[in-house]
Amino acid sequence: MINSIKGKPRAGWPETFEVKWDFSPENIYFCDDGADPNDYQLGEYLFGEANLAEIVELLHGHSRRESLWGVSDDKVVRAIMHWSNGGLMTPPLLSVNLGCLVVTGGNNRIAICREDGQPRLPFLYLAADEDRFVKKLKSFSSTINIVSTLKVEN
């Protein structure tokens, strides 16, 4: 199945494919490939969301991606299969650096969501940068404070 979807448009993916996000505080470190759980402190990050088209339009330089396929194809296939098998994924991590919107972790997830036609994209961001996101993204809304989520679950 893995090789049969490589390079295919959305219509060629498994019928079971569905984007499902993991908003659990203990898994926020998955937003960044290869991160360590100790790299992310609860309360430092928030979940926000914005229109995916606006995010893609404003991405800067190395964060821009024109096509789903051709960059990290094996990782793209694994992510599609993970979602197709009912798995959850942590939203990508975005930041605003020197006024530019950049993907810190999750470029493949964003590309897959774009190919799937998702209207909005949830993402993680540093709580201290909330004003930057309010100014940068017209469709931005802050949705979940990780600390609040943690307190509800305890």
Describe the model:
With 154 residues, this protein is an alpha+beta fold. The chain has one domain (2-7, 16-24, 44-146): Conserved hypothetical protein from pyrococcus furiosus pfu- 392566-001, ParB domain (Alpha-Beta Complex). It contains 6 helices and 5 strands, in the order αβααββαβαβα. Strands 4-1-5 form a 3-stranded antiparallel beta sheet. Strand 2 (93-97) and strand 3 (100-105) form a beta hairpin.
Question: Brief overview, please?
Answer:
The chain is α+β, with helices and mostly antiparallel strands and 154 residues long. The chain has helices at residues 2-5, 52-58, 73-84, 107-116, 130-136, 146-153; strands spanning 45-51, 93-97, 100-105, 120-126, 141-145.
Q: Mind summarizing the main beta sheet?
A: 3 strands, antiparallel
Q: Helicity, in percent?
A: 25-40%
Give the strand order of the largest sheet, numbering strands 1, 2, ... along the chain. 4-1-5
Task: Name the average pLDDT.
Answer: 88
* Number of separate helices: 6
How far do the termini sit from each other? 40 Å
